[in-house]
Amino acid sequence: xxxxxxxxxxxxxxxxxxxxxxxxxxxxxxxxxxxxxxxxxxxxxxxxxxxxxxxxxxxxxxxxxxxxxxxxxxxxxxxxxxxxxxxxxxxxxxxxxxxxxxxxxxxxxxxxxxxxxxxxxxxxxxxxxxxxxxxxxxxxxxxxxxxxxxxxxxxxxxxxxxxxxxxxxxxxxxxxxxxxxxxxxxxxxxxxxxxxxxxxxxxxxxxxxxxxxxxxxxxxxxxxxxxxxxxxxxxxxxxxxxxxxxxxxxxxxxxxxxxxxxxxxxxxxxxxxxxxxxxxxxxxxxxxxxxxxxxxxxxxxxxxxxxxxxxxxxxxxxxxxxxxxxxxxxxxxxxxxxxxx
Length: 341
Known about the structure:
CATH superfamily of the largest domain: Immunoglobulins
Structural class: alpha+beta
Low-confidence stretches: 174-190, 337-341
CATH topology of the largest domain: Immunoglobulin-like
Helix content: 25-40%
Distance between the termini: 65 Å
Strand content: 25-35%
Number of strands: 15
């Protein structure tokens, strides 16, 4: 069982009214000397003490297991599954509030049987990409009367990798890339789709003869296929932009990361092979789920690097290059912010 850390007690609205009523009763009993009021005051004090002891016991003897999802994207809600176990042998637990961040809305667990467990999922959202740690899970108790919230922290040591925010492909500024995409070129070639039927000529491949049309017309009919352009995309992300001291520059840099991730995921989903090249890392052309995960991990951790030394004829250093010069390219770099004159 992992060690718990107390988080103190916070009074609720119901508890505040109860304390005020207790003070009023104490003043009335002192001024009047009425024994019945003293008995009521003693009962009210006893209820407060009982509430404190019960709430402290209610958050002890628990264990928490977290099962984060495989993919978490910035600014996108996700569900974090958890399992809450009661290791106590005698008493169940009631009215527990569970969260992994004190700023998030806690989830109410109304009942946890003795030696039992409760499974659920808490809704979360993380605003920035990169690695995020949640060292503690927060539990508080409203049991038995809801006067106070007794809170403790359980060590969970959760660390998640948050991928960049993904935009709708139609809103990302990628129109030039789609025009270069590898769709049918509407000319004869070695593709898969039918381009046209024509008479067989000397030198044509006999394997492309359309035998049904040949039998129907009595002449050899040849099938021309549509040529296809390369179904590849090279994303060249220039992250050598220097120190991003300006908050506006940081926002623009993060948007470029998201646009690169949007382009990569969109083209991978359409069957493309995608290459990603930055100043410090490169992922060669590949497709499928592994390439998707590798690109997302790289973009989740990409940082702004110092500006490269100027090269001959290149004020910002040598430009990034793809391993396939014939493949369509998407160049992503931070443009200087325009200043109105």
